[in-house]
Amino acid sequence: MKGIHSIFLACFIVSAFVCFLASAFDPSPLQDFCVPIDDPKNAVFVNGKFCKDPKLAVADDFFFSGLNKPGNTSNRVGSNVTTVNIDQIPGLNTLGISLVRIDYAPYGENPPHTHPRGTEILVVVQGTLYVGFVTSNPENRLITKILYPGDVFVFPIGLIHFQYNVGNTPAVAFAGLSSQNAGVITIANAVFGSNPPINPDVLTKAFKLDKNVVTHLQSIF
Question: Helices in the chain by DSSP H: which ranges?
């Protein structure tokens, strides 16, 4: 009896832990879909959101047009991300998935960044990309690959990753993310462009840089 009790207790603890981990990600839908709506009239309350009555949902709640159009890469990093998440397709609410198109100028990059709420799976459709991610502390191992059209690469949730166009022609990739809104934190922008700025003494010590270099970086981000 004591052994059975121990097994039961262990199963309960594991189940509770799994439930805790699951709660850190997008909630599972409690019906076929949940198109969010601002006006609670003609709405039902599902997973913490007022949602349109499913009977009133229309095709446009699940539709977006425009991913065939190249993004403007005339910027400092030479890339453009066109996002298709819950803000563009309301019907994605609670479904735990979204999509992006990424355009790269010749030698442009999608700089080191992280998605706090989603894993990313990327496919190259044009050009050649050098991609990679860095594992967590203490190993901080860099895992990289050169991708060609038709190649697919996965960036695990929360890890810093990047893509760099190594060719002298434009490149295009599409990526799916395991969240209706995966979020993005661009490392350089967050560290050197925070509002208000991080105390330069902190960054000087953390990056082992001259303080003048730190203040210069903060001025350009």
Answer: 2-22, 187-192, 200-207, 211-220
